Structures are given as structure tokens and as C-alpha cells.
Amino acid sequence: MRRSQRRRRTVSAYRDGERVVVLIPAQFSGAEEREWVDRMLARLDAREQRNRRTDTYLAERAQRLIDRHLSDQRAAQAPISVRWVNNQHGRWGSCTPADRTIRISSRIMDFPEWVLDYVLLHELSHLVVPFHNARFWSLVARYPKAERARGYLEGVSAAAGLGISED
Ligand SMILES: [Zn+2]
């Protein structure tokens, strides 16, 4: 806990190795300090919970999407490898149908789950159809929020000037 003379009202917290540093205004009372430390620790926990999207989490989401939307597609059934990657700058996700591997850009790690699910379903559909043809899009359209998710991704890409596209 650090008290700052310059701070008037704002409280913030961040992790510094094993410690959590909570910055509070110098004039806070002892009771306010305890209240804010508790509140900021809870907030930090919630933030970290959201960020705990591991490769295992991706694999579980992928299986759930296959069961829900691609259960009638034999090509989507066999085991796949799904993992996060940091080196994918121009695409949200990619799929290599030949070795059944899917890579998802870590840029979307904090995106809402329904957007992440859309990107996953898009790549999973490539296990069935490698190209963006009508049959492919009919598989993707099985995901109820497909259009909304595409709009979301286009918006993020445009706002950040990223020029990232689906693949
Ligand atoms: Zn694609």
C-alpha cells in the first residue's frame, strides 16, 4: 500500500512480482484504506480471472462448438490442436486442415467469449471446408451471433487501424 500526496481521489492497484501495490490518496482514513484495499484486490482478481484463458480453455470451447454446431460433420470430429499464438499479426485465427491444427491470435484473448467462439467456429469450419465458399459460410452461419461477431471484429480492426482480417 502506498499513500500518495499527489493523489486526490483515484485508487489503483497492480501486481509487482509477488506483491500487489495499491495506490491511494494520502488523506484516506484507516477505514477507507481497508475498504479500498479489499475492493482493489477483488477487482484485480476478477481481471486476472478473465485473462486466464489457457490453451486448455481454447480446446474446451472448441469441443463445445463442435458438439453444438458441427456434430453432423465427420471432418470436424477427430482430435485437433488448438492454441494461442503471439506471432499472428494479420489474422485473428488460422487453421491447417492437413494436420488439424488451429492457432488463435492472443490479441483476442480478452475479447468477449461470444466473439472468441465465433473465431473458433470459423477455424473449426475450415476443418470441413478449407475455402471461403458458400458451403463454408453456411457452416459458420450456424453460430447464432456470427454476423454480430464479424461486425465486432471489423470494428476493432478498423478502430485500431490494424487491417486484421478473418482467415
Ligand atoms: Zn477463414
UniProtKB/TrEMBL annotation:
Tree of life domain: Bacteria
Signal peptide start-end: none
InterPro entries membership: UTP_pyrophosphatase-like, YgjP-like_metallopeptidase
Domain YgjP-like metallopeptidase: 39-153
Protein name (database record): M48 family metallopeptidase
